[in-house]
Amino acid sequence: MDYATINGVVQAVNLTKQLAKAAFDGKVDADAKAKIGEVVEKLGDVQDRMFNLRNDLHELQTERDELKTKLDAADAWERRASNYNLTQTLGGAVVYSSKGDPIHYACPSCFNKREIHPLQDNRTVSGKFRCTGCAAEFPVKPKHKVTAVPTTHHWND
Asked: Which keywords accompany this UniProt record (predicted)?
């Protein structure tokens, strides 16, 4: 039963209750008044239960909508997370690597919080990349130092 159906039943019960009261107020004998009084009382009970059912239905629908929103968010995260693999970089860092373009790395700490922050290259010799979310640094791509070749200078030549 949906909300509109319950509202329709509540309105029908209310109308029936009003009609029974009108009949009660009219010129009828004592036996009929007693029976009409019982009907009015029972209709009042039905009306109260219908109001409670309507409130319960509203609460259930609200809870369902909240759960659906949470489920949709979880599904969206699973789809997004499936585009990453946990990997170890050349520098020894364990980070998430994207499967698609543009290829990038993501912070594992933020990833576990269901956030994806692409790591940014610090452009240092150590090859560290920085997370824009938590500022952690990871040795992703160490660059090889260029060693100076000794040369002899002949200043007086």
From this structure: Coiled coil
